[in-house]
Amino acid sequence: MSRITHYTTHGTCSREIVVATDNGCIESVQFVGGCHGNTQGIASLVRGMRIEEAIARLEGIDCNGKGTSCPDQLACALREHL
Question: Where do the domains of the chain lie?
Fold first, then answer.
């Protein structure tokens, strides 16, 4: 059964991330706002990936010295989703 999380981002151009998972795997990711091409690419790359693997790959990525990024915020959303 799919589970959906709406996560409000902090410190990025994107405002929200909507994550759908099933049985520990990412089914879909949708960023609201942000750099459309980049966020669309991130969403495509993590589709089908185990949640823990996506967190390990994305956590800590920084955008222009902001201390976070859209990929890092996705990792935060996935942690909250767990």
Answer: 3-81
Measured CA angle at 76 (ends 1, 41), to 5 deg: 80
Q: Taking the model in full, what pTM does it have?
A: 0.95
CA distance 82 to 25: 11
How far apart, in whole angstroms, are the C-alpha atoms of residue 20 and residue 4? 4
Q: Where are the beta strands (DSSP E) in the chain?
A: 3-8, 14-22, 25-33
CB-count exposure of residue 16 (10 Å: 0-12, 13-18, 19+): middle
CATH number of 3-81: 3.30.390
Tell me: the pLDDT tens digits for 33-65? 999 999 999 999 999 999 999 999 999 999 999
